[in-house]
Here is the input.
Amino acid sequence: MDDPMGVSVWFNPACGTCRTTQAILAERGVDAELFEYLQQRPSRDDIERVLKLLGTDDPRAIVRTKEAVYRDLGLAGATRDQLLDAMAEHPVLIERPIVIRGDRAVVARPADRVLDLLDAGGPTDG
Here is the structure.
């Protein structure tokens, strides 16, 4: 799902911010692996791992609260476990794009936040 030496992106091709992030990476010469998480759903463990890479334990940091399924499932008052289960079952609830590089990740919203990750360390060719 992601290369520990390279860059991977939890990506939705229908998302303009994802496409802009992809373009920024390409401009920087970064050949990122695109993980289309709506097609190949991440497991709860995958989501937990990404939260750690983002430096948080709170799934609300990456949940899309404006999605209809968030409202339909009544997730406003959900526990951490309920949110993680819902995100694994309904990946549309996961914010995007999430860019992963080594042991760090960022939610690239706005897209130029990816530069924080790239500029933070070492070469990007992997």
Q: What stands out?
A: The first helix runs from residue 16 to 27. The beta strands are 7-10, 33-35, 98-101, 104-107. The two ends are 15 Å apart (CA to CA).
